[in-house]
Design a protein that fits this description.
The longest helix has 15 residues. The protein has a single domain, classed as ACP-like (Non-ribosomal Peptide Synthetase Peptidyl Carrier Protein, Chain A, Orthogonal Bundle), CATH 1.10.1200.10. The protein is an all-alpha fold.
Length: 76
């Protein structure tokens, strides 16, 4: 699993935020578009693309794309 692919897949879960705004340091909870629906979409994407089932509580402890990537990577 590569970080650039993860960022691309992560960014695709947002409709109004340009993909170029997403980096490893992006604090996704601070985005105007962030909502619980995005969180569910991201959890679903992680399950489908990486066959990792994250609990919402696990995702809640992450703030940046890098932190979420590290969490998913630790479960591979």
């Amino acid at each position: 699993m590569e970080i650039n692919e993860f960022i691309k897949n992560f960014a695709s879960q947002f409709d109004d935020t340009d993909a170029s705004e997403f980096t490893m340091e992006t604090r996704f909870r601070e985005l105007d578009e962030w909502s619980s629906l995005n969180a569910l979409a991201i959890l679903n994407m992680i399950g489908k693309k990486y066959t990792i089932i994250l609990k919402p509580e696990e995702m809640k402890i992450t703030n940046t794309v890098q932190e979420l990537f590290d969490l998913v990577h630790s479960k591979l």
